[in-house]
Every structure is written in structure tokens, then in C-alpha cells.
Amino acid sequence: MDQEQEIKNLVIARLGVLPEDIGISIGSSGNFNKEEMIIHVKSGDEIGKKITKVEMDFLKGLKQGVHYGKEDHLSNSA
Amino acid sequence: MEKKTILATRPDFELTTKYISSWAKKVLDFAQEKEVVVFDLDKEKANRQALEAVIREQSPDFIFLNGHGDYDKVCGQNNECLVGADDNEEILSGKVVYALSCRSAGILGKKAVEKGALSYIGYTEDFIFLYDGKQKSFPLQDKIAELFLSPSNQVVFSLLGGSSPREASQNSKDSFLANVKKLLTSEAPKEQKGIVRYLLWDRHHQACWEKKE
């Protein structure tokens, strides 16, 4: 199995444990229920890629303690 | 003492705008209780002409934009562009702005500050929220959406309470993190723990741009 498929499987498994009636709003991309989220991830379209990015950023962030608030903030002078 | 003033745009034409505008109303109700003067451009009033007129004639201290957006714009009712980069961002000059909108801190926020906005708090990527499909008709009763939209509201609550923009953004981020911690405790339903990654996404992508000293 290639890496891309492994990542998709991981994301789908993670989505699978969300509450059944959950919906997601991704701005102007639209609103999706759990089943639709999984379909988008499987198809690898833009919505699926976005959902996958959220998951992968989270997993990378775990190493840095993101869930404890340990991260660089986007707060700057323009 | 001169009263503070806030202008809000609250488009409402589909699910996402219905949710964010419903939750934004809580902030405006709080503002009115605190005797802040509120200019509420909701639904059809969330249009460019009305926004520019209120800014020109009333010069509000704070601007709270709700709606769809992109790196270079924030939209109103039916996705009319209200403020755009290299378009009319100078209307935000002298204002403290919070945009609950996707991506607009990416380009528009920076350009607005370059053109004189005191501060622009927004999101550099999509603002994502989860909701309870059973509560779609009652956004304010949706405990899942509250996990996202209450921390968002914290920006404006803090600004109205006298916090600096940077402090207001930090308070909002702290509020996102408090919800993350709440979900990670053993008391939270197991299936809700997966929500954490979306809270951290929004928290991470919230940016506060300010004028150089």
C-alpha cells in the first residue's frame, strides 16, 4: 500500500469515531456530514485534502505539544 | 465619557452564515448591555454600500466582520465582497477589526494594517467548525458548535472589555485551548475527542496583525 493510501485510511479511521450526527462547516467549501467527509477523503478532492491536512497537522503538532498550547502564535506586525 | 461603538456584519443565507451570525448576535447583546453603541448590519443589510456608509458616517471603534471569505476578501449577504485587498481595504483605517471569516488574515488583513487599520484579527486559513446535525435549526443550542464559536466570540468580548487586540486574540486562543482540555478529560464523551484537531486548527490559524510601532 502506498503512503498516500495509508494516510487516507488513517484519516478515514479517525473520522469514523466522530459522533454520528456531526457536521462540518469548511467555509465557502460547504457543509458536510460524516459520510460525506469520508467520501471526500477517499476521492482525494480539495475537500478531502483539507480534511487530511487538518489531521496531519494535528498529528505533527502532537509531538510539539500543540494540545498543551505549545506552538508559535501568528501574532505579528504587518 | 464617549461611548464605544461597534459595527458588525451578519449575513445569513445558508448554514454557515446562519451559525456564525447567530453566535455573533450574542456579542452584540453583550455590547448593548455594556452601553456600547451597536451598528448591526444583518442579513440583506450586510452589503458593501451599507458597510461603507456606516464606517464613513459613524466611524465605529471596532468592526466585527462575519461571513465567507478568502485570502483577499471578506463577504456579506449572498457573498457580495464587502472588503477586498487592493480594492477598498483603506475603509478599515483607524479601526480594530475582527473577521470571523476564512483566510482573510492571509492577505487582506496585512494589507488593511498597511493601509492604516490599527489591528486585524482573523484567520490565515479556513475557519472550520463542527456542529450537531440534530441542532441545525437552533444554532445557539448547539453544544458542539459552541466549542468553536464561543472562543471566537472571546475576541470581541475581550476588546469590548478593554483588552488590547493582542490580548484579545490570546484570550480567544486560551478559550480554544480550554475547550481542547475539556474534551481530553475522561468525563468528555469518547466520540467527541476527535473534535480536538479542528479546535487546534482554528486556534493555530488565528492571527493578529498590528501596526508597527
Please summarize what this structure is.
With 78 residues, chain A is α+β, with helices and mostly antiparallel strands. Chain A contains three helices and three strands, in the order αββααβ.
Explain what you see:
The complex is a heterodimer of chains A (78) and B (213). Helix content of chain A is 55%, strand content 15%. Chain A is α+β, with helices and mostly antiparallel strands and 78 residues long. A two-stranded antiparallel ribbon of chain A has the order 1-2. In chain A, strand 1 and strand 2 form a beta hairpin. In chain A, helix 1 runs antiparallel to helix 2 (34-43), helix 1 packs across helix 3 and helix 2 crosses helix 3 (46-64). In chain A, 26% of the residues are buried. Chain B has one domain (5-210): Rossmann fold (3-Layer(aba) Sandwich). Chain B is built from six helices and ten strands, in the order E-H-E-H-E-E-E-E-E-H-E-E-H-H-H-E. Chain B has helices at 15-33, 48-58, 108-114, 143-160, 165-184, 196-205; strands spanning 5-10, 37-42, 62-66, 69-70, 73-75, 81-84, 96-100, 119-123, 128-132, 206-210. In chain B, strand 5 and strand 6 form a beta hairpin. In chain B, helix 1 (15-33) crosses helix 4, helix 4 runs antiparallel to helix 5 and helix 5 runs antiparallel to helix 6. The longest helix of chain B is centred in the last third of the chain and has 20 residues, at 165-184. Classes of the chains: A alpha+beta (78), B alpha/beta (213). At the A-B interface, strand 1, helix 3 and strand 3 of A face helix 1, strand 4, helix 3, strand 9 and helix 5 of B.
